[in-house]
Amino acid sequence: MLPEPFLNSLQGLPGFDRESFVHVHEMGEQVTSLRLNSTKGIDVAKHHFLNNTASIPWCVNGRYLPERPSFVTDPLWHAGAYYVQEASSMFIQYILEQIMPSAEGKIALDLCAAPGGKSTLLANHFNKGLVVANETIKARNAILVENITKWGSDRVVITQNDPSHFKALPHFFDLMVIDAPCSGSGLFRKDPSAINEWSEESVQHCSTRQSRIVEDSIGTLKEGGYLIYSTCSYSFDEDEKMMDTIAAIPGMQNVSLDPPVNWNIVACESPQHHAKGFRFYPDKIKGEGFFVTVFKKEQSNNAGYYADDFKWNLISKIEHEVMSSFFTLPTDYIFINHQNNLIAVPALFELSIKALLKNVYVKKMGLVIGEIKGKDLIPAHALAMSNWITLPYGTIEVDEQTALQYLRRADLVLEGEKGWQAVCYQNIRLGWAKLLPNRSNNYYPTEWRILKY
Q1: Is residue 179 in a domain?
Q2: Label partner for 78 (CA 20 to 30 A): which of 130, 253, 382, 428?
């Protein structure tokens, strides 16, 4: 049951209808949605539950499922062919299409990124740009690394920093997404246990924290750059009040959007600066509670300048020759040897990635190709997950049961050409195996294996 103080706190807010709001929570309907990875080439018609879905109106790759399947038993979930994401939060895609339809050469920061829903969405939109996905908490950062690796983009840099650390990168990003830590009331229907965690004190604590995050990081946004601020909370202090906080920052101007009326998204306005935002209510849309607003930095004092004095180790001539003997290397990347791994980073963003390495703590960048031992290339799992079309070695197509055995890191008997092979299910790579004369070695990452289902 929803707490009375919580319901009273929402009274009078735009779009709040107490009776229908309570009713939809009492019904307990669970909405399951996912977003397809446009780079993986999944054949929806061949998939046993994706061929019976409805489109999410504000996200071209978003799908509603009629019921929640067991995702852990679907090899394509492990392959990063789609991301299970709450439908309301996919509205970020609509916003990006309105404010930045072309992201070529642009750099985005997802400041509070784990577990990676918005970062993977950004990775698809910024397929000719660069995404920095930041997560402060170490355990959550590990989940972010896993999800980004499976998604396959080579244009994501993962960092682990407090928002204040980005002060070292003034006027650096063209877009900043702050999906702020919040009191979580928008997810009460999805997670009823969270109701017991809600309190007015928690809302105030979150509001104070949200203000600090914005104020500590806003300087890293370029002049002309955009801020997308969102929460999964209904509370005024975390939503409309925060719009006034952002609007009061010099140079920040609210951006007005006009989504179709039949989407039933509720427009709202802050009391002081009349900034516009949007509220998502589960009794009005097919999704959970969500709030979002957009601002543009119209002016700033000066542009950032970053000296090219970070030194990294370019691969040697021998390393280049060994890699080139296995596959054709793309020409628009720089190849470096970092922590005993060969890594490809987009050449267009060389200076930007060097600036990140110099000023913040970087956990992962670009695409890890693998390592060289003698004249052999030992491929990294990230290479199999990547969106690169041309890869070293061959592929082996397996059925569903064999794919699940592989994902459990169980022993396999695979037929095919001896040596390294990419294990594929429905033409989408799952990882590497090495076929030997009398056995097949399974190289799926131990820490990601299926333990039970």
Answers
A1: no
A2: 130
